[in-house]
Structures are given as structure tokens and as C-alpha cells.
Amino acid sequence: MSVMARALFPRAWVRKSFYFQARISFVRVKYLFLTWLAVLVGSWVLYGQYSTYTELCRGHECKAAICDKYKRGVIDGSACISLCDKETLYMGRCLSTLPNNQLGEEPEPRGREALPPVFDKPTRGTSVEKFREMSKLGEQANLASLVSQLLIVADGNKDGRVSLPEARSTWALLQMDEVLLGILLQDHGHTPRLLGFCGDLYMTEAVAYGPLYGLALPWPLAAWVPGGMQRSMDQWFTPSWPRKAKIAMGLLELVEDLFHGPYGSFLICDLAAARFGYTERHELRLTDVRAVVAEDAFRRAMRDRHCQVDGDCTFGTDCGTTCDAAGGRCREDPPRPNLAKACSVLKDYLLWGVPAGLGEELERQLVACMALGGGGGHCAAAPGQMNMEHSLILNNLKALLWRQISHTKDS
Q1: Parallel, antiparallel or unpaired: strands 292-294 and 314-315
Q2: What is the distance, to the nearest Å, from the Cα of residue 335 to the centroid of all Cα atoms in its chain?
Q3: How far, in Å, CA of 251 to CA of 183, rounded?
Q4: How far apart are CA 104 and CA 55, in angstroms?
Q5: How many CB atoms are located within 10 Å of the residue 388 CB?
Q6: Residue 234 has what pLDDT?
Q7: What is the DSSP letter of 84?
């Protein structure tokens, strides 16, 4: 062996040894990361299974308190017999562990489970007409149909009269905004139907699929996933495009129902996918009615709020106005209309996987929809013109989507 060969051999051996060690280190890091990921996901699954345990929601305590008041004749309702006498209704999966917002879910219906309030109103038994007067909801002529709906709900045993225990339960239910709004909207079929109640515990029909789109990642993983990748992953877990179009039409119809409806105007102040779901027939359901607020209530909240910058005038996630710096208060003008916010959500949802030849026209209409302005600002259109533009864009979008799915089984 020459001197040069002897000199090169150690160098080659060192390079090979270094490459081998680097490869071993890479493999170790790879398997270490996969092991950590498996432990993380496994822990999350175990936590999810544990959170289904009813006692995490103190379901037994809440049920005992409700049933005690029912058996003593303090409260009554259409679900009390199933819950307390027959015990065929029970809470399954826990939806919230907050003490003041206890939520539970049964195998079929969905319900709210809350610590019982003091059922001290109303104080006397009353007929249907007297209950109508006591509730003061009938003083305005445009609320007559709502009063009728509330009285039908209050009459849990369907005997044509509202007993004192039924009245107490109904009064407690009406203190929760989501119940009243759910009753307002349920005739249109966009919210889960109210199935029964006992005290301030109420049950609604189950919604088969939720959230509206996307995959709910555990928060440790969500923090590591880039926003662009998360949006792409959200689109992977959506139905076929014709079914997405049908769900989108449901959202547009919900916006239409909330826009100057028989009970006034309402604003959707949280359009997150988690607030919505859809049925097996791909019909949209607003699963969290707390995302909706009456426009009058929004105006009152803004009128009483002090501010220094526009950021002080936010309401929920998707509602807000501007700050009047001179007066130090928020302006009352409504934010962007519901339709503009809905189109912002539908843009990525509908343009992903859109049929050939439709994408350009659909995107054009969605962009025009997103440009709709609210009632405030110096360049705001007159109310009549804004309403006409709103209706025109809404009808055009619905017609475009309907043409694409009217000949399919999904229609």
C-alpha cells in the first residue's frame, strides 16, 4: 500500500463513520418525534373519553336538584316525566365543565344542563291569557305570533292551560337568550328543534355533523400547524361540492331570515365553523344560537360603551363599529351585514373543488357580496338602496347555486 493510499484510508473511514452516526441521529430524532406525537394524540383521546363521563359536568347533582323541585311541584315541563319518573332521559357526553355553563349531551337529543335557579317567577297560577299579559311580550302587535309560540312551548302537557310549575320553568328558560332565539328561528328549520324541557334544562334534536367544515385539532397540535396548512386541511374534511352548495344555500337562507324578519333584524356575530353543523340530508343547522344577537340589543350595547380606539367597539368575533373619538363612545351603526360576512366564509368553502366553468362567475358574485357595506360610515348607501342591493346579490347567489344542484339527488 502506497503512502497516499494509507493517507486516504483514514479520511474515508472518518467520513463513512460520520455519515453513519448522522444517519443514526436522524433516525433517533424521527422516532422520538413520532413517539412524542403518538403520546400527545393518545393523551388527547383519553382526555376526550374521560370528559364524556357525566360527573365531570356534575350531571348527577344537576339532575337531582331539578327532579327534587319537580317532585315537590315547584317546576314542570314536557321532559320531566322522562327525566325524573321513567328515567329514560339521561346526560351522556359532557360539552362544558365551566360551573356556570354546564352542558351535556344525550345519545339522541342535545340539551343544556345548568344549576337550578330560584324558580320564584311567576308567583301565581294563571290562564293562558293572563300569562300572555304577565310576560309583556304581547304589548307589541308584531310579537303576537311569538307569544303564541311561547305559550305552546310553556304548555308542556298540552292540556290547553299553563300551570304555575310550567310557567316557572318557561320563565327560567326565557332568561337564556339562546332559548328565546332558538324558538324565534326554529320555524325556518335552521336551528335544532326544541324537543322538551324540565325546569331550565332543555333538549334539542341532535345534529349529525359538526363543525360545518374542518378538523378540530387538539390545541397543542393546532399551535404548530401553519394557518395556510390548517385552511387546506379544513377543506379535506368537507362533503362533495353539490352537498357543500346545498349547505351554503342553507346559510344564505338563514341570512335572509335574519334580515328584517317578523321579529326584527338580527346580527350573526360569530361565523366560526364550530357554530354550525348539518344534518344527514346536508341541511344547515345553527347549533350555537348564542352567535346571534338582536340588532336593537347590539345598538344599545354600543351606545353605552366608552371607547378610545375602534378596537374598543367590538361585539363578539365578527361584529363591531367605529369609535367616535370626539364623544368617547362607540357609534351605533350596524357592522357589515350578515350577507357580506357569510360570503367571506363561503368563498374558500365553495371555490375549493368547484365544477369547471363555474369558478369564475361564482368568485365574481362572492367578491361583490363581500363588498357589501353596513349602515354606517360617510359613504354608506341609503337604507332602501342597501336593502335592494342586498336582496339582488342574495337572490343571484342562490339562483347560481340552485342551477348547479337542482338536477342532482342532493337537491
Answers
A1: unpaired
A2: 19
A3: 18
A4: 10
A5: 12
A6: 67
A7: I
> pLDDT digits over 323-352, tens only?
998 889 999 887 689 999 999 989 988 998
**Nine-digit cell string for 196:** 322538551
User: Max CA-CA distance within the chain?
Assistant: 115
Place of cell 344577537: 293
Helical H segments across 262-376, by residue range: 295-303, 338-351, 359-370
- Alpha carbon separation from 352 to 231, 237, 241, 245 (Å, rounded): 11, 12, 8, 11
- Can you give the pTM of this predicted structure? 0.73
Q: Where are the beta strands (DSSP E) in 77-206?
A: 93-96, 103-105, 110-112, 194-198, 201-204
CA dihedral for 388, 391, 394, 396, sign (positive or negative): negative
Give the pLDDT confidence of 246-265 residue by residue, as tens digits: 999 999 999 998 887 777 78
Distance CA 76, CA 166 (A): 5
Which of 56-60's residues contact partners 24+ apart within 8 Å by CB, and which partners? 56/94, 56/97, 57/91, 57/94, 57/95, 57/96, 57/97, 57/102, 57/103, 57/104, 57/113, 58/102, 59/90, 59/91, 59/94, 59/102, 59/104, 59/113
Size (the chain), residues: 411
Omega of the bond prior to 165 within 30 degrees of 0, cis?
A: no
In DSSP terms, 13 is beta-bridged to: none
pLDDT band at residue 140 under the 50/70/90 scheme: very low
Residue 312 CB-half CA count within 13 A: 14
